[in-house]
Amino acid sequence: MQSALYASPTSHHFLPSWKIPQPQFTASLPTKLRIKSPTFTNSLRTSIGYDPEEALGDDPGPVPGRLPVVVRRSGRVSRYFWDGECLQLVRVDGCAASFGGLDFEDGFRKVCRVCSCGVRDFFIPKQVSENYMSYVKWKFLHRVFSSALQVLATQAMFRAIGIGYSRSLPAAAALNWVLKDGLGRLSRCVYTASLASAFDTNLKRVRFSTSVLFTLSIGVELLTPAYPQYFLLLASLANVAKQISLACYIATSSAVHRSFAIADNLGELSAKAQIQTVCFDNLGLLLAALLNMLLKNNPRLQTSLPFVIYPIFSALDLCGIYQGLKHVHLQTLSKGRLEILLNTWIKLGKVPSPAEVSKEEGIDFLQSKDKGSWPIRIGYLDPKNQIPKLSMMAMRSTSDDDYYFISMETFYTRKRRIQQHGILLCLRERASTADIIKGLLQACYIRRVLLMDENRWADMVDAGDAVDSALNEWRKLIEESKCRAQGDMRLLNEQMVARGWATKNILLNTREQIRYSFVDD
User: Fold this and answer.
1) Strand 419-427 to strand 376-378: parallel, antiparallel, or no bridges (unpaired)?
2) In CA terms, which of 98, 101, 109, 315 is 20 to 30 Å from 236?
3) pLDDT (mean) for 342-352
4) 3-state DSSP call for residue 406?
5) Exposed, middle or buried, 407 (CB in 10 Å: 0-12/13-18/19+)?
6) Where are the alpha helices (DSSP H) in 61-131?
7) Residues facing 333 on adjacent strands
8) DSSP assignment of 325-375, as one string?
9) Is 405 helix (H, G, I), strand (E, B) or coil?
10) Which of the 8 DSSP states describes residue 261?
């Protein structure tokens, strides 16, 4: 069988209307070939006034003018020009001028530009998202004042050891220091093991919470000179809080760096982050040293200095952390971010960007954000809560082909102990990411219908015996919402990928990871 690209030599469909000249080889070239090296200059000569339409003519040779190639390197923007004889690379970023073939540029501006480009290349990765610079600015504020506070706290602890153990052996002070560090590291292990999944699902809230804990631990360390007899207790409590904060910082750093990487350059981002941390911490160390040098002749003021600047530096430190986390736009999908995304999809018919979801998600440090009526929960039916008859029907109608089922639940809020109705999404073992997205989308569609007539549906749930009309209406709502969610999946998934969301996995916390198994007996 012949290939589809094969053409018979006798086929008239492929005969050209022109003849191909036979190549002739001679011993000498007809003309002399001149090769000229490219010349790099800042002179634009007459090329700036070149009009591309002037190139249209009978002369097939290259016409002088601008070439459609621009090169950006080391902060410079240059463009290729052809003057008819040689190729030139000319600066077009407005930083250079020419007169009479001589280049004039302000030396101070040139030094500043070179230094700024060098500093940027030293601290900032090559390919990052546009919000990375804002994050680094707030990180600078956080690291400088946090480092200064740590230096002052360490001085206070040394002062406490000198006061509390002035008559003891140096080994006693060393023993207390070792015990302090040992208890802190043990607490760090326990904390990391207990909140492993929270580092992914509630990254911003956990990180800011532990940052507040770290700031409070510095305040406890500053109190050790005032209570030297309780040095071990105070220092141990402070170190436990510090180790917990350090564990959270290490666990969440990779996810934060990945949110800025746009070219899979996670290693470069991590390396630049370490450089930033070292340099910013050294500036904080210098700030603390300058404060001590200014007050070295007044021991009384030097002793009270930490208590004066602690509230100011702590506020600036926490402000830098809080504002920096606002510029972290996670592309991974948790239950909370996916629910915000799906609600926007139902309301506006489009998928929001990670930045838009991040703005709506916030940090929610105190977990005081109102979830609204009929909140959606992923998990399992808790027998301690009141289970409506409609939930029993949902479980009874589950088949082997279903990888989730949706039911209603009644629970009491933690703070006010008020009865509230909600929607529960129960996931089956081996449920895929597509099943989770479809199930949560269906639950969002159901909630939209329930909110249209909230009181009537609440009365149905509160009724002791579900009537046939309520059961039929609930069954109809389940079927319609399932068909609607199934029809949206293809377009929804395409838009999620186009907007930069990572749709491979859905991050769930420990309770949301509980699945059910189907038993057909």
Assistant:
1) parallel
2) 315
3) 95
4) strand
5) buried
6) 107-123
7) 506
8) HHT----EEEHHHHHHHHHHHHHHSSPPPHHHHHHHH---TTS-----SS-
9) strand
10) B
Structure confidence by residue, pLDDT tens digits, 26-71: 334 343 334 344 444 443 333 334 444 444 444 455 567 788 888 8
Amino acid type, 86: C
Q: What CA–CA distance (Å, rounded) separates 206 from 256?
A: 13
CA distances from 201 to 207, 327, 367 (A): 11, 17, 14
Q: How far is CA 21 from the centre of its chain?
A: 62
Please state the φ and ψ torsions of residue 131, each to the nearest 5 degrees: -85, 5
35 secondary structure, DSSP code: -
| 280 Cβ contact partners less than 8 Å away, ≥ 6 residues apart | 139, 140, 143, 144, 147
Structure tokens at 120: 């940027």
The predicted structure's pLDDT at residue 391: 74
**R_g of the chain computed on alpha carbons:** 34
Name the DSSP class of 228: G
Per-residue pLDDT tens digits for 116-154: 777 777 888 888 888 899 999 999 999 999 999 988 888
To the nearest whole number, what is the mean pLDDT of the chain?
Answer: 78
Task: State both tokens at 475.
Answer: 């069954």
Question: Helix, strand, or coil here: 91?
Answer: strand
pLDDT beyond 60 at 362: yes
d(CA 461, CA 454): 11
pLDDT band at residue 358 using 50, 70 and 90 as cut-offs:
very high
> Token match 């749930």: residue?
461
Give the residue carrying structure tokens 């990254």: 203
Q: Which of 237, 119, 112 is nearest to 180 (CA)?
A: 237
Question: Strand pairing partners for 72?
Answer: 77
Q: 3-class DSSP state for residue 58?
A: coil
Residue 503 three-state SS: strand
277 φ/ψ angles, rounded to the nearest 5 degrees = -65, -45
